[in-house]
Amino acid sequence: MPQHPRLASFLRPCGLIWASMCLCWEGFKIAVRENGLGALTRLPQIRDAALATLFSRSSKGFIAFEDNTVVPSLVQAASGVVLELGPGPGNQLHRFNSSAIRVYGIEPNVYYRDVLEDKVKEHGLQDKYKVIGARLEDSDVLEEAGITEGSLDTVLCIQVLCSVQDPKKVMKQVWKLLKPGGKFIFWEHGWSKDPLTKVEQAILNPGWSTFVGCHMTRNVMVDILGAGDWENPEEIEAPEDPISVLPRIQGVLFKKA
Fold first, then answer.
1. Model pTM score
2. Of 46, 155, 239, 247, which shows the fewest CB atoms inside 10 Å?
3. How many angstroms separate the CA atoms of 188 and 69, rounded?
């Protein structure tokens, strides 16, 4: 018997939570064998490694899902000097218009580094895409790469604001780094407008945020609009999806000149 759509929407994230829990447990057992009780001090690294393994293994599935969304066209809209926030396993690399860009991929999870570098080579982007192991808040590291206030034509953000520590701070930094007229391109998820779905998100969020590394209950729209003055905030799209616990908002915003 097929599942009710709402039930399926609720259970799908549970599968990802469980998969991450299993990988975290395996990583913890290895750390205990190698470091004894010292493994307890390595819990953040164990989770980062588990998440990198999980999302690298499931990369093809996520790419196939995004192929049926607005994501490919959003990535194609990136131009000039581009900063990609949190590229993870590099799901967007094949979608860039490589003739019109130079991209910096800012990825703080070191366990993605090898798979990301391999994909850069696979798509022939060695001269176009530079991986930087840092957070957006690490301004000294960014400055060494030439990323300074007003230096970027585009910032690309595909499901990243849900996982950063302080989305308001990150968005203010995004706005600073963009040139006047620069583009902020995004596809994010946050609170649902549906009351029942909000309850489901609140139930899932503790496990989701702990083991999948992002939050279901953020007001992403407020964080984006509060970063600074945008030319076209009315063009943000929030497609109706009342039963999804991961409802998206999307758009291309231009920094006021």
1. 0.94
2. 239
3. 12
